[in-house]
Amino acid sequence: MKDRIQRRSELLVENRNLLHKDFRLENGLITVIAGAAFAQKDRTADPDRVKECRKLLRDRQGAFSQMRGNNELVISSKMAVSPNPEQYLDNLVEIYEKFQKGKFFSSSYRVLAASTICDAGKASQADAIVEKTNEILKGMNSKHPFLTSDDDTGFAVLLAMTEKSTESILEELEQSYQILKRSFSFHDNAVYSLAQVLTTYDGDAVAKCKKAVEIFEAFKETGYKYGKEHELPSLGILINLSDNIGDIVGDVIEVFESFKGQKGFGMLDMSKQTKLMLGAMIVASAYGEDRSTANAAVANGALSIIIAQQAAMLAAIAATSASAAASSSH
Question: Each residue of 231-260: pLDDT tens digit?
């Protein structure tokens, strides 16, 4: 396991650097996530193939499409690692249009949700998954209108891909949220997202919440405080990896330490909390290879990468907004 985690960590750094040479204008964290699309499959990034896929994407989608902009490099990379890039894009567009039905505004988060369905190999079940996702979002919005927004779509679609009923999902989600917010005061939005991640997994809600809090505390005790903002949901992908919390935390910290001195992973590139989140993603994907069921594959693979993608999107949006604000002040 240690060798697999180390190999995956080194590959992520290598892939980020390979892609950065050809996509220098991209947000740094998005470049890392694009590199992770290759690393998740133990593949070295192929910038030329990504460029070919980006050209195909641009030929099919206009400049104002939500599949372009911040999503473009990640989608192009996902196309590049698929055996049939054109089919991947066709499926993605078709599923995204299902999400858009009846909605006026487009959404980059619905693009990520559509890509999650593609990545899980469930494009043929898209109608049912999209319908269930919308039901879950409707239930969430009814209960917590100020906490529910488009950025929850990526988590809701993962919930929709489980065998749990919409009613049981919403019931467990609320129970988990009420438990978790006692431990993470003043971070309700991130807590609600973490509750969504935990509800994706089978098992007792109270036990899952307890495990998540214990893992958070274990990080803090070792001097590596886990983030409570957009990083917090990724804590949930660690709960089912091992009964030994010390082993899990130790593995994530080892990945974090391996980033030191690496280009693109310095203090000016990303925060400590973001690097811990990426460490969690790598550890979860490595452990996930030992799980044989389809549901576990979705939970450990697609879930970890979608959480990281959403974090990258939020960071990119924040960076763009900050840049725009700085420009307007001059």
Answer: 899 899 899 888 899 999 999 999 999 999
Do residues 161 and 120 make contact, with C-beta atoms less than 8 angstroms apart? yes
Nearest to 151 by CA among 198, 205, 190: 190
Domain extent for 56: 2-321
Confidence grade of residue 317 (pLDDT, cut at 50, 70, 90)? low
What pLDDT does 328 receive?
Answer: 53
In a domain, 327, yes or no: no
Specify the residue for token string 């452990």.
287
CA gap 286, 241 in Å, rounded:
10
* 291 has a pLDDT exceeding 60: no
Look up tokens 């214990």; give the residue.
Answer: 214
Here the tokens at position 21 are 């040479």
d(C-alpha 263, C-alpha 323), whole Å: 23
Q: What predicted TM-score, i.e. pTM, was given to this entire model? A: 0.91
Q: What is the DSSP letter of 266?
A: S
Residue 87: inside a domain? yes
For 140-189, write each residue's pLDDT tens digit.
999 999 999 988 998 999 999 999 999 999 999 999 999 999 999 899 99
179 assigned to some structural domain: yes
Residue 329 lies in a domain: no
Q: Number of folded domains in the chain?
A: 1
Which residue is associated with the tokens 């960076």?
319
Task: Concatenate the DSSP letters of all residues of 217-231 into one string.
Answer: HHHHHTT-PPPSSTT
Residue 46 φ/ψ region, left for φ over 0, alpha for ψ in the -120 to 50 degree band, beta for the rest: beta
CA distance 207 to 167: 20
Q: Which residues contact 150 (CB under 8 A, 6 or more apart)?
A: 107, 109, 110
